[in-house]
Amino acid sequence: MQPWPRTEEEALAEQDRLRARVVTEPGPASPATVAGLDVAYDDSGDRLGAAVVVLDATDLSVRDTAVIKGRPAFPYVPGLFAFREVPALMAALEKLTVRPDVLICDGHGLAHPRRFGLASHLGVLTDLPSFGVGKTRLIGEWEPVGEARGSRSALVDAGETIGAVLRTQDGVKPVFVSAGHRIDLDGACALTLRLARRFRLPETTRAADRICRDLLR
Predict the structure, then answer these.
(1) d(CA 65, CA 168)
(2) What are 54-91's pLDDT values in tens digits?
(3) Residue 208, SS3?
(4) Residue 65 and which of 35, 75, 94, 205 are 20 to 30 A apart at CA?
(5) C-alpha closest to that of 173 among 203, 205, 194, 151
(6) For residues 14 and 5, is the Cβ–Cβ distance under 8 A?
(7) How crowded is residue 137: how many other Cβ atoms within 10 Å of its Cβ?
(8) What does the longest C-alpha to C-alpha distance in the chain come to?
(9) Between the CA of residue 211 and those of 32, 68, 97, 106, 123, what are the distances in Å?
(10) Are 208 and 37 in contact (CB under 8 A)?
(11) Global pTM?
C-alpha cells in the first residue's frame, strides 16, 4: 500500500495516479445491498466520526453498520478534501461483515475540479461501484431543473458533463449526482431516485449521517 500523502504535492501525484484507474461502466442493474458513507466533525474540527451503513436495496432495512472515531488524515486543501476522510472511511469499510454492492458517498465523484472526488477515490481503492450525491455544488453550471421528481439537468464544467442536478422529490431542492467508479451517470441517478423514496436525500446518506453524528455526541 502506498504511504499516505503528507504534502499537497504528494496528494496531487497520488490523485493523478489513482484517477487513471477509474472505470466507467453501467454498474449493477439490481444491487442487493447499498452502502451510505458519511463523516462528521466535532466543533473543533480536530476529531471526526466516520460511518458506513449497509442497507438492503429492496426494503431499506439495515444489514450492517461500522463506525470509526479518528482525526483528519490531511490538512484542509481545496480539491484534496478526500485525503482527510478516506483513511477513516476505509477503516470503517474493513469492519463490515456484509460487503456492499454499491458505495454512495455524501460528496462528489467526477464533479470535482480534478475529476476525482471522494466517491471516485473510495471506488478505486475498494474497486466497488461508487458514486456521489452532494447536497451542494462543488463545481459546474446547469440549466433550470423541472419541478417534478426525476427531473434532471446536466451539470457541466468546461464543456464536459460531470454530473446531474437531480430533483428527488416534487418541488424540493435538487441534489448533485456524479459517477465515481464502475457506474455511469444514468445508473447513479436511477439508484438515487430508488433510494430517495420519501425525502430529498437517499436513505443511505440519511442513515450514515445519523450514525456518525451520534458517534461524536
Answers:
(1) 25
(2) 999 999 999 999 999 999 999 999 999 999 999 999 99
(3) helix
(4) 75
(5) 151
(6) yes
(7) 16
(8) 47
(9) 22, 11, 17, 13, 22
(10) yes
(11) 0.96
